[in-house]
């Protein structure tokens, strides 16, 4: 499924690294930056998420909640979050359902791994409407964070 700008963001519920359920529709009244990433502890994913960590004050000042999603297990994500001192929510899509709904799932990834999240970014406004989408086919590239920050800055 391809997510289009202007559509209602598909709702989901996933576990975070503290084993608490997080439901997208319950996060209304704030902007959301959803970042799907392939695998914890890999070089590009680490660089991407550490960049977000280092710029978290921008997202906080923009009233935007950052959420990272991968198909890694809760335990792997908790260790990754701890090791990298990530200061935002990570959710486990271990069953690959949300990545699939958001059109962010590789059928085949490196080393014959099936069902790994594509590196993707989605901005969802306070009403739950998708305002930005970027789904990358090349896992070695990162989302356009300058564009993302510009949209978040101008989004009321």
Class by helix and strand content? alpha+beta
Q: What is the number of helices?
A: 5
Q: How many beta-strand segments?
A: 9
Assembly status: single chain
Mean pLDDT: 95
User: How many domain modules?
Assistant: 1
What is the CATH topology assignment? Glutaredoxin
Strand order of the largest sheet: 2-1-5-4-3-8-9
Beta-strand percentage range: 25-35%
Annotated CATH architecture: 3-Layer(aba) Sandwich
- End-to-end span in angstroms? 28 Å
Helix content: 25-40%
Largest sheet: 7 strands, mixed
Task: Report on this structure.
The protein has 156 residues and is an alpha+beta fold. Helix content is 28%, strand content 28%. It has a seven-stranded mixed sheet with strand order 2-1-5-4-3-8-9. The chain has a two-stranded antiparallel ribbon with strand order 6-7. The mean pLDDT is 95.
Can you give keywords for this protein?
9 strands, 156 residues, single chain, 5 helices, alpha+beta, two-stranded antiparallel ribbon, seven-stranded mixed beta sheet, Glutaredoxin
How would you summarize what this structure contains?
The chain is α+β, with helices and mostly antiparallel strands and 156 residues long.
Which secondary structure elements does this structure contain, and how are they paired or packed?
Elements: E1 13-16, E2 21-23, E3 31-36, H1 43-54, H2 56-61, E4 64-70, H3 74-84, E5 89-92, H4 97-101, E6 105-108, E7 114-117, E8 120-124, E9 130-135, H5 145-154
Parallel strand pairs: 3-4, 4-5
Antiparallel strand pairs: 1-2, 1-5, 3-8, 6-7, 8-9
């Amino acid at each position: 499924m391809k997510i289009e700008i202007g559509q209602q963001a598909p709702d989901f519920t996933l576990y975070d690294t503290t084993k608490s359920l997080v439901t997208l529709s319950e996060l209304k009244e704030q902007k959301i930056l959803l970042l799907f990433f392939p695998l914890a502890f890999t070089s590009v994913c680490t660089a991407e998420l550490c960049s977000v960590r280092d710029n978290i004050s921008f997202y906080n000042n923009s009233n935007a909640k950052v959420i990272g999603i991968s198909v890694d297990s809760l335990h792997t994500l908790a260790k990754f979050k701890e090791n990298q001192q990530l200061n935002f929510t990570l959710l486990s899509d271990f069953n690959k359902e949300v990545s699939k709904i958001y059109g962010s799932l590789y059928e085949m990834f490196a080393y014959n791994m099936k069902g790994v999240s594509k590196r993707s970014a989605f901005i969802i406004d306070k009403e739950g409407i998708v305002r930005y989408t970027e789904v990358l086919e090349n896992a070695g590239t990162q989302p356009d964070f300058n564009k993302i920050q510009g949209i978040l800055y101008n989004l009321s």
